[in-house]
TrEMBL record:
This is HD domain-containing protein. Transmembrane segments: none annotated. InterPro entries: HD/PDEase_dom (IPR003607), HD_domain (IPR006674), NT_sf (IPR043519), PolA_pol_head_dom (IPR002646), PolyA_RNA-bd (IPR032828), tRNA_CCA-adding_enzyme (IPR050124). It comes from the Bacteria.
Length: 485
């Protein structure tokens, strides 16, 4: 197979070939760009391997293209970005061909200069070990020593060398094999998968940062459950998320059993994936029932219960994020909130639900309301299709009520008009228990619908609450004029 016609349509390849020839350095397009070119998938990242200094070649190309080059001296790599008329901004990374291996107890590879064959040998999968020549006498020719082209056509994930060698050299390749199978909807070759099973405990030498990068890509795949089932069957998930694995299985007492919460969770994750590409919403789906193992109880009258699993699960989220090296920022807080609230909308499908209950959900969900409703819809699972449709129709009604109430009361970003500063100024207080009690009382009254969230109505309520606590307003504290808000 020859790609010379395609390469001639991309000025960057002509430029690399010209500079490589001038330096006397053979150069090749390798890895994912070649794979995606065969699959006709868009790609914004080009990897160039040369038999010499990748940095020198990058600097020569950068000078010719008049673009800046970023050099990573410690890694022997360099990168530049070029603007392609068809594809927009493209990243091009240059590296010299090398051999790379890991010691038995080390997370850092031993790297040596090597040949093109050495470089292809160290690739994780046959479909990523193909290259295209940029050299004058073989320009555009596909170099495919491990029949990656055949594996692409057969939709097979396979290692270029014996699996134990490939995975021992870099155990992250086990995660990558499963990640590519999930993204491309390919099967994993039986010998390769058996190798993952044999080597799964070696994942422990890989940094969590590298692992979580692959796990996030699995979560963002079109059908992420496929990847998680593979991770479980290979024994990797037990090392990464034992809390999720603990959900697997069905226990039966007195003829009453509960659903398998592991497979339920994966179904919810797939359901969310069909509605949203938000990584953190998908993490919320993955963790929403994470505490059901700890909260599972059997009651002879009602059967199996998981009371409070949402609160226990929410409390686990920060520790899980910390262990998995996920960001401990607003994304973690969003996941924690959605795990905590995912049961709240369910009772609202009942007839006669009060505006007060709806207001409280709007207040607690705030800007995450849409994500919460998406998660709740995804959480409606059953083998009975008609049952699912009935629940979803009732949930439509709840969602409409919430939107109608939000439009009327503007509670999505609700903040009570009575602030702590106003309370302290009115009663001459410093930060104290009394200030908190008054704030809570005002907020609850607004959410109950006792008073509107208007200063002219809330201020007298605040004064009454202060008097009940034995507080006296300052002489200057006068109730706002009517109509002020």
């Amino acid at each position: 197979m020859n790609f010379s016609d395609f390469l001639h349509t991309k000025p960057i390849f002509e430029r690399i070939a010209t500079q490589a020839r001038a330096l006397g350095i053979p150069a090749y397009v390798v890895g994912g760009y070649v794979r995606d070119l065969v699959l006709k998938r868009p790609s914004k990242d080009i990897d160039i391997v040369c038999l010499g200094s990748g940095i020198a070649l990058a600097e020569a190309v950068g000078k010719a293209a008049k673009v800046n080059v970023t050099v990573y001296q410690n890694f022997g790599t360099a990168m530049l970005r070029v603007d392609d008329p068809a594809d927009g901004l493209i990243g091009v990374e240059f590296v010299g061909a090398r051999k790379e291996s890991y010691r038995a107890d080390s997370r850092k590879p031993v790297v040596e200069d090597g040949t093109l064959q050495d470089d292809q040998n160290r690739r994780d999968l046959t479909i990523n070990a193909m290259s295209i020549s940029l050299n004058p006498d073989t320009f555009g020719e596909l170099i495919d020593p491990f029949n990656g082209l055949t594996d692409l056509k057969r939709k097979i994930i396979r290692t270029p060398l014996a699996p134990d060698i490939t995975f021992s050299d870099d155990p992250l390749r086990m995660m990558r094999a499963i990640r590519f199978a999930t993204q491309l909807n390919f099967d994993i070759d039986a010998d390769t998968f058996d190798g993952i099973i044999r080597m799964n405990d070696r994942i422990g030498i890989v940094s969590m940062e590298r692992i979580i990068e692959e796990l996030n890509k699995i979560i963002l795949a079109p059908t992420p459950s496929y990847g998680f089932k593979l991770l479980y069957q290979a024994g990797l998930l037990q090392h990464l998320l034992p809390e999720l694995v603990a959900l697997k299985g069905v226990e039966t007492v007195d003829g009453k059993g509960h659903k398998d919460n592991f497979y339920h969770t994966l179904q919810v994750l797939d359901n969310v994936a069909g509605r949203s590409n938000d990584l953190w919403l998908r993490w919320s789906a993955l963790l929403h029932d994470i505490a059901k193992t700890q909260t599972k109880r059997f009651d002879k009258r009602v059967g199996w219960t998981f009371h409070g699993h949402e609160e226990v699960g929410a409390r686990q989220v920060p520790n899980l994020f910390r262990r998995l090296k996920l960001p401990l920022n607003e994304h973690m807080k969003q996941v924690q909130k959605l795990v905590r609230l995912h049961m709240r909308p369910i009772p609202l499908v009942k007839d006669g639900i009060t505006d007060s209950a709806l207001r409280r959900l709007l207040f607690d969900a705030g800007p995450d309301l849409e994500n919460l409703l998406t998660l709740c819809r995804a959480d409606i699972t059953s083998k009975n299709h008609d049952k699912v449709q009935r629940h979803l129709q009732r949930f439509d009604q709840v969602e409409q009520k919430l939107h109608d109430l939000e439009e009327r009361d503007q509670l999505r970003n609700f903040q009570p008009v009575i602030t702590g500063e106003l309370i302290m100024e009115t009663f001459g207080l410093k930060p104290s228990k009394e200030v908190g009690e008054i704030k809570v009382a005002v907020r609850e009254a607004i959410l109950d619908g006792t008073i509107p969230n208007r200063l002219d109505e809330a201020f007298p309520f605040m004064l009454d609450m202060g008097k009940k606590l034995g507080l006296t307003p300052r002489q200057t504290a006068n109730s706002p004029s009517a109509g002020q808000s």
